Amino acid sequence: MEDGRIRVSRRDVLRGAGAAALVGAVARGQEPAAAEGLVRMGPDAVPVRLTLNGAARDVSVEPRVTLLDALRERLDLTGTKRICDHGACGGCTVLLDGKPVNSCLVLAVDAAGREVLTIEGLARGDALHPVQAAFVKHDAAMCGFCTPGMVMSCAALLDATKNPTEEEIRHALAGNLCRCGTYPHIFAAVREAGGAQGAGGAGGAGEGAR
Amino acid sequence: MSELRLGFPGNEKKEDVEIPPGTPPPWDLSTPHAVVGKDHPRLDAVAKVTGQAKYAYDIRFKDLIYAKFLRSPHASAKVKRVDLSRAKAMPGVVYTEAYEGETIRFAGQQVAGVAAESEEILDDALRAIVVEYDVLPCVTTVEDALRDGAPQVLADGANLREGRPQGNLQLVEKAHAEADAVVEALYRTQVQTHSCLETHGSVCKWDDGKLTVWSSTQSTFGVRDGMARTFGIPQSDVTVITEHMGGGFGSKFGPDAWDQFCARAARAAKRPCKALLDRREEHIAGNRPDSIQRCRFSVKKDGTLMGAEVRSQGTSGVSAGGANVYNPGLYRFRAAYSQQDTVLTNASSGRAFRAPGHPQGVFALEGMIDELAEAIGMDPLELRRKNDPNVVRLAEYEIGAREIGWHRRKKPGSDTGPVKRGLGMASGRWGHNARPGTEVRCTIGRDGSVLFANGSQDIGTGTRTVIAIVGAEELGLKPSEVEVRLGNTNDPYGHGSGGSVTTPSIAPPVHAAAWQAKQELLKHVAAAVGGDAQKMDLRDGKVTGAPRELTFKQACGTMPVDQLTTLGHMAQKSGRGGGHLYPSFNGEVAGVQFAEVLVDTRTGVVRVVKIVAVQDCGLVIDPLTAKSQINGGVIQGISYALFEERILDRRTGDQVNADFLGYKIAGTLDMPEIVSIPFSVSQGMTSTGASSLGEPPTVPTSGAIGNAVANALGVRVRSLPITPAKVLAALGGAR
Questions:
Q1: Digit-coded pLDDT (tens) for B138-161
Q2: Which of B218, B681, B696, B705 is buried most, with the most CB atoms less than 10 Å from its CB?
């Protein structure tokens, strides 16, 4: 599994792929009519193809496996953290089709055919995302365990809202818990990253709302 | 003889000291630091923001198996029978254990253990185990445990474990009799769980009888020694690795039962095994005991504190000790007395939690100080100033009062309108905990590379960065130009990170190792280019005082050897008794905090608007990461003051809020403005004068908030957490 090869028969692959695609479509409410003729999925592993950090990746998982566990345990992407495992802490935040989700609340099969961006895919090579660079500068990570989820939530915020106010930052991060107490430095980091992004060059809003 | 200037500007103490040969000249107020005291981003920040930092939880192997305990839902029971047959028959289950006949003393105690090839199989297998219990009556609260006929938690004695009385009660009575006001009140604090984001646990792997443990721990060497004892193998056959770890706060000094089980499973299955707790289990892996503090304090009209008398009781679950509180303390009382009892209950054990005993004690103590101030009509800050023996805190009061705008404080409850503003304050102390024993190896390569290595851990406090800054200072480099390796027990010994010992204990050995390496390097330089090594130094990446200009790298190139290595330690006084090399300024660290709150008297909701924290930590090495540390202490303090509380079902003993929904820790929307002010004191004792910071900043917060809420309302909530229900009840009682 970990080498990406799928050890199931061809018939299983076909059956599984159809079901995964179908469930994905139904979940997004695109083709309710196709719900007729549903194919039973699982309990054994089924193949799932994701677009993961820009590249197609195949993984074979039981339908009960979450996207989080698929990333960590099958795809060796351990940057995304499992902290509460019930959608209460944001530690497992990834972007699914550009939107932040708790990957512990998404089944891997439901992510089939969709774009998943994890913390490992945020930087462009050695060039950190502005949020990451600002986190470093403002010491916004202490033990660092909540940090990947925080960074992804912040990146999603800046995608949606240029130069966010502190109030917008607080609300965007309300679902991300930190135990060490990095929040004030995270606010400072996002204000700066947001200001730098939103300013669009010299003479911009600088650090943003204070 | 040299002169050591200790203290802080405005309050200096000069000491004549002997600098033993072979040790670095100690830093003091005269030392012109190049990089110490400047903001530096933490060394591992990039690894953390990119998801590359590897925690124990992230260690992967192709043939990894997963281990977990099945835990009792009953708080008191006998395990009659454990039927593993269905679990064992499942494909992918590789190892099991059952604990038949065991006595269950708290809900969550292990009754069986399984290791399996995937977490899904593991879940299935745990569900397939059938356990028969003889369920017995349990007690979960101090009050219930002290009732006549209450079930006895431990076989070896009664539930009440009385503490030894401290102080002289007769003198306290005499002081009360001479006082102008005597105040009596009962304060309560709750059980708080550590709730580390990376749960407890490890990955264990055996190779030829040797064990490697990737552990989420605050004490790599403690885990090494514990595992060596458990398996009867030499220390040298155990390697513990903790490159990064996701929070401990006092709860991770293992190895714990699950780590030992993990290693047994790995050995039996001949495969690496991972056992990290789930969120529910994490709530039983340590807590801050609760407290009921009966206080009787007295004061004279002129503000002289007279008697302080405290009887406290708290539960540390099935631990027969550990519920002590820091009360009375901080201030000069004419006479003080306390007795502190631990009461056994059917609950998981308390563990050291960031300043054990202090936040709970200070919440009551500082509440009492405010109550005394009100009784004699004195400003609470003034009362503290009159009775505080610590000169650092006296200076911090001025800074804090100015930052919060203490002059705005009104008479309690005098704010008009339904939403009332209040100001409050509280103080804290901690030891200057510099412990000898930690060693640091400095290796300088002929290519100019510099490595500092120590086998202990950075638990998120920034130890790696502190090492780089202290080492770079002595070598005339930038912190980014030196490498630091931490978290592998094959490197030199370092203490567990408890008691806020790490920075004060590791900075001196780094300093010594770097200084010794510098002396050796400069000798090589003198041999190569001439000049007097004694008159040379390293500054700004260059050699100073040499006949010709050399960069640090060129200096390293003069070495006739491939690399030079030194081992630094915290030098002690020679001769009998030993002891610290230098006198200390006052041997403790001091902090004060001021809180501003808004309390909605219609809903009872308390909103913290601002906290000012002025915190001494000896010599400030990195203000940026020091501020993070202070912010963190304050935020945990806010969370403790307003939100967190472990709630056990009183009948079954099971925790009803063992998650992050019902057990609420402070989030972004709860954040006030936090003004964290590191207060640098040249503390002496060691060659660096750096001191403790991990625990102190969480001590005063709940006391300051409690006092601010009382100032807003005119009535006091003497129980943590200060929930809307308690606020409304207090207001109702006042009407």
A1: 999 999 999 999 999 999 999 999
A2: B705
